[in-house]
Amino acid sequence: MELYIKHSGGQDRWEQIQSMQVKGMAKLISQKMELPFERIMDQQGRQIVKLKINGMDYVSIAHDGEQVWGSNQLMEPALKGQDETANTKALVNDFPFPGFNWKERGYQIELMGKAQIKDTETYEIKLTKQPQLVEGEAIENVVHLFFDTQTYLPILSQTVLVSGPQKGKVQQSYLKDYRLIDGCLYPFVTELQYAEESEPFQILITENVEWNLTFEDSVYKMPAQ
Predict the structure, then answer these.
(1) pLDDT tens, residue by residue, 144-171
(2) Taking the complete model, does pTM exceed 0.85, yes or no?
(3) pLDDT in tens, 202-219
(4) Do residues 203 and 24 lie in contact, with contact meaning Cβ atoms separated by under 8 Å?
(5) CA 72 to CA 57: how far, in whole Å?
(6) Domains along the chain with CATH numbers
(7) Separation CA 121–CA 132 (nearest Å)
């Protein structure tokens, strides 16, 4: 992890990032749809993720520092349940990326050895984060990260889904097209797929990334219905 931090910008430069705004296009493969997306998050754990659907903002998740909310099926704002609220609040430990300052955040790292990912040799790292809640029960929260042995950049993030209709499936996030943004490398393409399938179900194409913008508190707040 330390080699990744060093080769992607360095500890000092990553420490200077207090907020990030990412904009781009989400390609939903099975629905044959392309939706503009925006994600804003900061060092305090506040965030909001929006998709533009038929000209309207659909908020998949938002955290204003206290409440966690999102759009319901009627495109109306609604508070999230206990589990999702707790798990979303815990994401403050994943800023600006999972594994950063892992010791201070109570995470554990284990080198699993080398692994061949398609045509790339990688180091496999097991990252054990703080437990997550599923139906009120705290369960193990593990992510496997695969780092290119030449560049030390992660090219794959892998986790087993523990809830929802896809429970039990292995979700893979392929990270591609790293670009330098104010001294830090950021992947501009993320392909999401299940390990059991050969094609991605979603592709996130980033168009713009900015660090350390200032946002009003109202950006994260749940609007009145």
Answers:
(1) 999 999 999 999 999 999 988 999 999 9
(2) yes
(3) 999 999 999 999 999 999
(4) no
(5) 12
(6) 2-219 (2.50.20.10)
(7) 31
